[in-house]
Amino acid sequence: MVQWHTKSRKKTSGGKRTTVRRCDKKKAWMGGLPANTKTSETSEQEIKTKQGRGSKLKKRTIQTKYVNVVDKKTGKVQKLEIIAVKENNANRLFARSNITTKGAIIRVKSGNTEKLAKVTNRPGQDGNVNAELTE
What domain of life (predicted)? Predict the structure, then answer.
């Protein structure tokens, strides 16, 4: 189902609002559904391409197993495996479902140890998952 990003035609008092915009619905005001990037069990990464406004193409990550993690102390970037989502402030049910969004704390496997990393990008719009190590 499509989400329309417009004001309601009713006021909070219950009265009718006469002019919201120049017309009722326009394709540019139409929103989409969230990508809800999940942690996959297999090694395949599923990416869908969505056409944006104009000739813009957005790559939406649907499933992923790996994350690009930067260590701020050393400045090195590693490709690590995602174990699970520990917490997600966007929605507390996302942690149970292993859904990754910006700001989520994820557990990653680095060698034999597990480390925590914070997601710094929006995987539903970038096509990959980037994170930085936390302590």
Answer: Archaea
